Amino acid sequence: MSYGGILALLFGYLLGSIPFGLLITRAAGLGDVRKIGSGNIGATNVLRTGNKGLAAVPFSASSRSVAAAVLIAGRFAPELALLAGFGAFIGHLFPAWLGFKGGKGVATYLGVLIGLAWQVALIFAVVWLAVAVLFRYSSLAALTAAVAVPIALYFLSTPAIAGLFAVMSLIVMVKHRANISRLTAGTEGKIGAKG
Fold this sequence. Notes:
The chain is mainly α. The chain has helices at residues 3-16, 20-27, 43-47, 52-74, 78-93, 106-116, 118-135, 138-156, 159-175, 177-185.
């Protein structure tokens, strides 16, 4: 990997590893979001604080910061955008500041997608919303959208971007393995449920 590639990967990692969910809930006086619900720092767990408006903030902040990393790196070379995006995704999952225990990557996944193929980000959003409205499971919506994205990218984008998202989708599924078990058992919490 080139020096520029390493810098892009690190740049993405640093932006992706900012724990917006934790910072925002603390700033709002709601304490440590890791001590409620799933213990996750992501937007779905922030929603479990009961503050619906607040939950959108970390999702938006994570997505935007990651999209910015991709777009900035992409101004130098297209392959650097891919590396910055992957670095940001990994940074969210394994942030050094939190003992490498981060979120499940959905907001950063979407941010990378916005930066690399915004048209397919719309497909992600439509699939996520449709599944969330029909079944009221955030995890099921995210998993379904993560399956749809690499397929859409195969037809609408480059092999490199489709390959990156195939890997990222697999990682999202691994990070959601406990959710998959609960979905199968019928014990997964629905959107808006506290605790």
